[in-house]
Amino acid sequence: MYQKLGKQFKLYLKKNNHDLSFQKWINELNENIKKILLILDSLNLIKHLINTQKTFELDHTRERFIEDSKTHRKLFNCKNLNENKFLLKTYFIGSSKNYQISIYNWKYHTEKLYRVEIFLENPNKLDYYKEIINKISFYIKSLKIEKFLTFQELVDLLLKHSLTYLNEIMPNLSSIEMHKLSFLSSINILNIKKLFPLLIDDYIEEIFLDQPHDKIYLNHQIYGRCRTEISFNLEEIERIKTFLRLYSRERLDIIHPSVKSVIKNKYFYCRFSIDISPLQLNGFCLDIRKLNKNIFSIPDLIFYQTLSSEIASFLYFCILKRINLTVTGETDTGKTTLINAFDLLTPKEFRKIYVENAVESLDELKFDMHQVKYKTQSLENIENSQFTKSNLIQTLLHRTPDIIFLGEILTMEECKALFHCLSAGLRGFQTIHSKDISTLINRFLYHFNIERICLNDLDLIILMKKLPIGRKIVEISEISVNKGISVEKIFDYNPMTNNWVRKKNLYHTNIIKKIIKYEHLPEEDFNLMINLFKEIFEFLSRFRFNKIADLVSIFNIIGFLASKNNYLELIQFWEKTKKKIKKRGF
C-alpha cells in the first residue's frame, strides 16, 4: 500500500494540467498524500523496510557502476548530443564546484545551449549520490520551522540538520562529500531549486521565462543569449510566486499583478520581476536581473572594446572635475555596467548619494568609499508618494553630495527632479532609455516636458549600442542650446574600422571651457594629464587585476595626485606601480 501510494503521488506530480481550478484541487490532494506518507514513513516497520531496501539498492548501484563504467562515461560524452551541437566551454559554479555548466554552440542558431548538471568528482557514483540526496531531502522536509527565517537563515538551518543526519546514516563519507551532499540536499527542497544554479552563476546577466509552459533562457556575459532545458510545472510556478511574496513582503494578486523586488544573500543578489494575470496574458512571466554578476572595471571594458583608452581618459578626467554623465541607449546595452565601472574610480573622499528604484549600484564600503543609499518605491507598488524617486531626488540638496547616482530615470516627475538638481549644481551619473541622442532630446522636450534651455545642464551624453560584436559606446556628445538645439559630437564610433574617431579637440569642448572659466588649466597641462591617463588605461587593460580592490587603491592615489595637479609625483607613482604590476607584486 505504501509503495502504491508513493507511485500515485509521483504520477500526480508529473501531470501538467492547464486548468488552474483543477490544479488547485490536485495541490490540496497532494498535500494530504504528503501528510499520509510522512505518517507512514515515521512508522518503525516502514523505516526498517525502506532502510533494508535502500541499502541493497545503493550497494547494487555501486557494483553496477564499477562493472559498467565505460557505458556510464558514454552517457556524459558530449559526442552523444545532437550532431548539430558542439561543446564550447565547461566551467564550475558554487564554492565546492557544486554544479557543472556546459555551453554548446548550435548549428544555424545565434543562441547557445546552456546546460547545468550537479557535479560530483566521481561520476561512477552519481546515481548513488543522488539516492543519498533524495534521502536527506525527504528527512529535512519533515522538519517543523515555527518562525520566519530569511533565505540565508533557512539555508543555514537546513545545512545544519542535513549534516547531522548524514553523519548518522553514513559516517564513513569524507568531509568534502558530506558538505557537498548536505548543501545539494538543502537546495533540493527549496522553492527555487531549479533556478538556484542560474542565480549563483556570476556570468549570467539576466534570466527570462516568458510564459508557464516555456523554457528558461538567459543572457550570458561571454556567450550572449542562451537557451536552457529548464521548465516549470504549475506547482513549481506557484512555489516561485510564494517565494517572492515571502521575501519581498509585497502583494502579488489580482489587484497587484506585478511585483519587483531585490533579494540579497551570500549566494545571490538579484532583482526579481514577476507579472501574473490579469496583467500577463498567459498567467505568469518571470525576469531576474543579476546584480552580483562579475564586476567589470574600465580596463575590462577597454579590453572588450566597449570604449577606447582615450575615451576612458577623457571621461575619467571629467569625473574628477564632477562633470555630469548621462548614459543612454536601448535595453541591455550596458548602461549600468558603464556607470558602475566609472563609479569605482571616483575619488575616495567623495560623498556619494544613491537614489534607485531597484538597487543596481555596487557596494563600495569594502573599498573604503563614502556611500549613502536610498531605495524608492517601485513603479509596480507605489503606495506611499512620500518615498517616490522624484521626491527623494529633490531632497538631495540638503544631503551635501559630491556625486549623485540616480540609476534609471523612468518618469516625467523623476526627469523634472533630475533637472532641478542639475540646475542647483549637483552632478553625477544617471541612465535613461532612448534609441539615439535625437530621440533622447525628444523624450526630454515632448514626453517629459523639459524646457529647452535646461538641456545645457546635461554636460555629457554617452550613447551605447548592443552590436553583433558586443556592447559599445557609439557616440559621446554635448548639447548646446542657444537659438536652437545643437548636438556636438566629441567621439564617434566607426564600424568600418571598429574604432573611435575624435571629432574635435578635447580642450576646446564646451565641458572643458566651463572648467577653465573658474580653474587655471593650461592646454599643455590638460593634454599631459589626458595622455598619462591614456597610458595608464592602456597598460591596465593588458594587465588586468583579479581583485577590484587593487584597481581601486591605485586610482585612489591617481585621483588624489591628479586633483592636486601634482604631475611629477603622479608620473613617479605610475612608473613604480607599472613595475610592481609587471612583477605581479601588486
Which helices and strands occur, and which strands form pairs?
Blueprint: H1 2-14, H2 20-42, H3 44-67, H4 69-75, E1 85-93, E2 99-106, E3 112-118, H5 126-141, H6 151-169, H7 175-188, H8 196-199, E4 204-209, E5 215-220, E6 224-231, H9 234-248, E7 258-264, E8 269-276, E9 284-290, H10 298-303, H11 309-320, E10 325-329, H12 335-343, E11 351-356, E12 370-375, H13 389-394, E13 403-408, H14 412-423, E14 428-433, H15 437-447, E15 460-467, E16 470-481, E17 485-494, E18 499-502, H16 510-516, H17 523-542, H18 548-563, H19 567-582
Parallel strand pairs: 3-6, 10-14, 10-15, 11-12, 11-13, 13-14
Antiparallel strand pairs: 1-2, 2-3, 4-5, 4-9, 5-6, 7-8, 8-9, 15-16, 16-17, 17-18
Keywords for this entry:
9-stranded mixed sheet; 18 strands; 19 helices; single chain; alpha/beta
Describe this structure in words.
With 586 residues, the chain is of the alpha/beta class. Helix 5 crosses helix 7, helix 6 crosses helix 7 and helix 11 crosses helix 17. The chain has 19 helices and 18 strands. Strands 1-2-3-6-5-4-9-8-7 form a 9-stranded mixed sheet. It has a 9-stranded mixed sheet with strand order 12-11-13-14-10-15-16-17-18, with helices on both faces. The protein has helices at 2-14, 20-42, 44-67, 69-75, 126-141, 151-169, 175-188, 196-199, 234-248, 298-303, 309-320, 335-343, 389-394, 412-423, 437-447, 510-516, 523-542, 548-563, 567-582; strands at residues 85-93, 99-106, 112-118, 204-209, 215-220, 224-231, 258-264, 269-276, 284-290, 325-329, 351-356, 370-375, 403-408, 428-433, 460-467, 470-481, 485-494, 499-502.
